[in-house]
Amino acid sequence: MEDFSAKFVSQKISKTRWRPVPAAALQPPELFATGSWDNEENKISIWSVGDFGSLEDAPNGEYQGEPQLLCDIGHQGDVMDMQTLSINQRWERAHYHMNPDTHSYGGASCTGVICNNPEIVTVGEDGRINLFRADHKKAVRIIENADSSTLHAVTFLRTTEILTVNSIGQLKIWDFREQRNEPSQIFSLTGDRIPLHCVDRHPSQQHIVATGGQDGMLSIWDVRQGSMPVSLLNAHDAEMWEVHFHPSNPDHLFTCSEDGSLWHWDASMEVSEKPSFFHQGGRSTTFLSHSTNQSVISAWLNNNPTKDRMEITNLVPNQTLSVNSLDVLGPCLVCGTDAEAIYVNRHLVA
């Protein structure tokens, strides 16, 4: 934990997201947003990680301060998901339940949101999928009853395709070019239909997808073939809340869990051959996944068992309450917890 700066915020934090920086930017991200849950008054807050001009004067070039609050705004209800945009827009009652007898409307949680500017997609416990544009006041496309179960998360596969995960262990691909409101592909976990809570797409190999769910397992999928995961990896001891590939170094993946852990998965090379990607700290173990034959060479689809090992490091080993959210961008990582604290690491690379 010595690599993290902590800020205690008197709010349970449900979501953390970095403000994106231009691809050509030389500086690491400066701002991030947090959302809270299970508080008397929930908030969305904007934070700064400090003055980058003072890094040269800091010991070892490391920022030693804590995140600084820039502004916040009240939020009705728990913040279930969050993305950052430069355009301000608001859509009321995007998700709802309707009583068929009284034709009255009741609230339904919006459980997931993803942006591919200017398109925004939301999913919810009502099984509805909404496609918005940031410059439009109304939805561009609505898929009513897209799922009979709760949709927990969504990600873009391509400009016109999204992938959703639900509470009965299914992944579904939706193509907005199709007029029919049916998924183009369905994938599922075998067995007890374990709910899936999170999903992320590999940033450069769009057919590779990672998911996590109620059993804490990490699943790797190749959406080009088959309907089952390529790899199932033993992971957390409780629900996995988020999974993220590193956006520019996707052989590194990060997960966080109800069990209080935040794991870094390093699939870049054999454990015995590589230096530590992170500074010393936390638990390190190796896992062996069981992969099927793959036609594309990838660290996540490697079919050679002797090389298919992961090095796993728990970045916050002393946590006991849930780590609900994480985001990683360049050398920086931010996470939020039920311990009413946010943690920032600005120098992941050793």
UniProtKB/TrEMBL annotation:
State its location(s): Nucleus
Keywords of the record: Nucleus, Repeat, WD repeat
Name where the WD repeats lie.
189-231, 233-266
What Gene Ontology terms describe where this protein resides (cellular component)? nuclear pore outer ring
UniProt organism field: Pelusios castaneus (West African mud turtle)
Q: What is its main location?
A: nucleus
Q: Which Pfam families match?
A: WD40
Protein name stated in the entry? Nucleoporin 43
